[in-house]
UniProtKB/TrEMBL annotation:
Gene3D superfamilies: 3.40.50.360. Keywords: Flavoprotein, FMN. Residues 2-150 form the NADPH-dependent FMN reductase-like domain. The keyword Protease does not apply. One of its GO terms (molecular function) is oxidoreductase activity. The keyword S-adenosyl-L-methionine does not apply. SUPFAM superfamilies: Flavoproteins. This is Multimeric flavodoxin WrbA. PANTHER family: IRON-SULFUR FLAVOPROTEIN, NAD(P)H-DEPENDENT FMN-CONTAINING OXIDOREDUCTASE YWQN-RELATED.
Amino acid sequence: MMKTLILMGSPRPMGNTAKMAEWLTESVKERDMEAETVYLNALSIKPCQACGVCHMPGMGECIVDDDMKEIYEKIKESDCIIFASPVYFFNLTAQIKTAIDRFYAFGPDYKKSFHGKKFGLLMSYGDDNLEVSGGKNAVASFNDMAAYLGVENLGVVHCQGYEPGELERNKDIKAKCEAMAMKI
């Protein structure tokens, strides 16, 4: 059974990005696939220390003892990873960026670690313009990461939404989240 892991980078469990993840999850489960959302803000994940131990012969894993160890296992078991993040200050949130930086432990052969996986991005921002909001930086970061890791890029679903609940009325965004689920 296909497994989708949603890495939630929003600290708002009832926010707009969480609503997008909820819509995607419902659609994934309607297709008899598994989906799990991990709220990164609720975990203790330290930044990468660039110690390089994970790349030493015979190691192959991060020695930092925190909640990222649990995420590593979920990543390995998943077929698809959806990154869900609002744009707070011209890019992805610190919560999701910290987890992404810890992907360093999958190296030095990153492409082998992520072979066959699919990545997607769900993103909301407060401004009504992707360019002005900094969303373009988040999209570029996501696309560069997906290309570097050699994964199938499912694309980006993004929308304007500042206050929690704004997306409830946005049927267009819900349909786009459902369309992404169909690509999984």
